[in-house]
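Hi R.,

Here's the chain you asked about this morning:
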Amino acid sequence: MVDKEEVRPQHNSHHFLLVAYGVQSHINPGRVLAHRLTRLGIDGSVLATLSIPVASYRRMFPDATMAETATDGIISYIPCSDGVDDGSWPKDANDRALRRRASSENLSAIVARFADRGQPPATLLAINYHYFHGYNELITSHATDPTYKVCLPGLSCPLQIGNFPSFLIDMSGSEMSKAIIELFQELFKYIDQLRPKVLLNTFDELEANVIREMKKHFDVFTVGPMVGSSTEARIHLFKHDNVDKKRYMEWLQAHPEKSAVYVSFGSVTKNSKRQMDEIIGGLRQCGRPYLLVVRKDGLEDDDENNHNLEDTQTQLGMVVEWCDQLEVLSHSAVGCFVSHCGWNSTIEAVVSGVPVIGVPNMLDQLTNIYLIEEEWGIGIKGERNNDGVVTGTELARCIELVMGESPKAMAIRERSKALKEIAQASVNAGGSAEKNLRDFIKTIQVNDTFCMDGIMSVHKAIAEN
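And here is the predicted structure, written out as tokens:
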């Protein structure tokens, strides 16, 4: 996987540098996009490099040095330092400023290095865009009223404050929210100045109205769903070996079609011991087979020391620390996905045709469950009690509502199946994703000088930050 030779472009080739945040749910879609770009240039005319934070690069390529360029045979990978390189969040404003400066300098150096060598979700996008273009005061002034409705251009109906991304309505002053607000503020400043082309990990039929609205503000290309096939190799930042995989895949194979509940809260979300106990209790209460993913670092504080995962193993259920989510969702035995509703997990559920029970916690998850339940009709939200906990009784109720034989359950399953077919059509050869990606490359190829000017403009903007 490690290649010490720099990839040299052919004459008239195009090289794309993709920059991904260092979590699995960002790196995998970035990798899929990079692969799809290169495959459009079957004569080697399209090259791609995925830049990832040093901490993630070390986990993916433990034998590589920071001076080496890694490759998977199709695309290259290059590390970018934030000055700390331990994968942690900034602790305060000074820490954020130091990391931003280091990241800017290092990314600027990467861009300059390529330039010297001659290598030149739509609803969430809309919400964030409009927040920074006239709606921030309205949204923040009602941040404590989750039922207050805000009408935003492009959205089919008013959006309740409680369904906005958590960082836009966070009045606690958390460092995470501050950091994300600053990031988006800077992002939209550059978007307004440079009018770049924007690639969206979605497809036209999924968010038609809001995509149409966003095209009024900048060039938008829907190139999703950015999900590889279940048989393709995927990047895993957590321990995952063939022994574990054989165990849970054989377990799934032993169960009837659409009988099992799959439960995973992603690579970032942490749950309290109380919440996990309720989830396990709800799974046992519903009486259906379940595959539960619980990372050792996925429990808050020191709860993992007080929570013996072996105690949750029963004839009914299996507990694993990590799994290949797309392959699990693609298995015929899975009939329901209990999820935190990150965008990557949401898109994978759509592509797999699996109904969702959402247990959102933060960030875009609050908006994604709104789309799942209200806009697309492929799942429901598990409601939290006054202590912020989804009880076992509530979870069991939701599972039965989705997997039972009521008219609503059947409608959810039918809609999930229909949306899966639309999603798959979009990524098939000649589908909308390929067409839009080709259109994007054509706009780049129209004027190579414009492309190089664009690279140097971004380079200059980064360097001056």
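One quick note: The radius of gyration is 22 Å.

Cheers,
M.
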